[in-house]
Amino acid sequence: MRSSVYSEGYSPTGGQSRSSYNLTVNPGGSSSGSAVAVANNVVPFALGTETDGSVINPAERNAVVGIKPTIRLTSRAGVVPESEHQDTVGTFARTVRDAVYTLDAIYGIDRRDNYTSAQHGKTPPEGYVAALSNRTALRGARFGLPWNSFWTLADPEQQSTLLQLINLIQSAGATILNNTEITDYPTLVSPNGWNWDYGTTRGRPNESEFTYVKVDFYNNLHSYLSELQNTTIRSVADVIRFNNDHSYAEGAEPNLNPAFASGQDLLLASNATGGVMNATYWQALHFCQNRTRTGIDDALLNSHSHSHAHSKLDALLVPPDVGQTYQIAAQAGYPMVTVPAGVHSKSGMPFGLALMGTAFGDLGILRFASAIEDLMMVGEGREWKRARPMWEGLGAGNLPVEAQCFGC
């Protein structure tokens, strides 16, 4: 929530975070450093906050596991906020097991984040470690492919590789149902890549995610800053003023710093709202939350099928390099997990296969993510297991990084 056009993974303090798979291209973000650190064996696990893609995207682009939990499962207390309606703290690790262990350490009800009270009675008594499984869990599992919603938007090479993996999952005993679509996907899913202002693009700001996120950011950041004792910055306006005072380093104006091509346009847009939650704000929030939740739940119920008998699905399988996948899950507040699934021949960059579920359906999708990962460990499945980096572009110093992201 700073610039609409910027170098993903860059900060004026730390410089450019780079993927060890290809140092010249977008490493994914915004939790870039978390994913890169895990991928490079600097740390065994890491945390990241997702508002819309900031766990799933860098995880899949660095060949690590990323868990984006149901909103309200992990506390946001003490976390720099963007939107109370979409922020959730997730985990990164090189294996599903390690990512689940990390999730077990951080989920739970926290009096400092009242949203977490909604999880009461909806979490496993023994923790999410109960989700850990092996390939036998795939026997009898039912997965859906939202083909027109997401898969048609995937890069052909990724699509081909992921479909081969899905055939392997099917051979392990799972049932795969195609065309399990997100209800009203032509309205909800941008055909031209990730776009959190897609409602406004369609001429309907009251159906846009950005309409409410920019207001939430104004209010939520004010609340966060009010608790800090080590700074005099207390508002979005103060952040903008700081950037203006350090204009080159912070890219206060468009094209002043190559990492911030659009300057601080999103901060300015947030500040212009004054934090006012007007009718358009509430309409946009209601539209995005309700329509995406209905869309995912309908797909999981396979409600568009001609035969409704025993049609409920365990998860939706989606290509997470298509940014619209995690965008729909983000607006719904629903869980998603990505596992490494391949490396693109052109860029050397990894991509994943992701599982999408319903509210507090984290245990189920983690169980099947664990099973799919186990399937990759032996025999034919090893073709899809986590690949080692080839360090393409080693020594690169380009800024900005190339915005190369097939499908997103």
The total of beta strands comes to 10
Give me the strand/helix succession.
EEHEHEEHEHEHHHHHHHEHEEH
Number of helices: 13
Gyration radius, to the nearest Å? 20 Å
Structural class: alpha+beta
Q: Could you estimate the helical fraction of the residues in percent?
A: 25-40%
Major pleated sheet: 8 strands, mixed
Model regions low in confidence, pLDDT < 50 over at least 5 residues: none
Outline: globular
Strand order of the largest sheet: 3-5-4-9-10-8-6-7
Summed over residues and divided by their number, the pLDDT gives a mean of: 95
* Beta strand %: 5-15%
Outline the structure in words.
- The strands form two sheets. An eight-stranded mixed beta sheet has the order 3-5-4-9-10-8-6-7, with helices on both faces. Strands 1-2 form a two-stranded antiparallel ribbon.
- The chain has 13 helices and ten strands.
- It is globular.
- It is of the alpha+beta class and 408 residues long.
- The two termini are 18 Å apart.
Keywords:
eight-stranded mixed β-sheet; 408 residues; globular; two-stranded antiparallel ribbon; 10 strands; alpha+beta; single chain
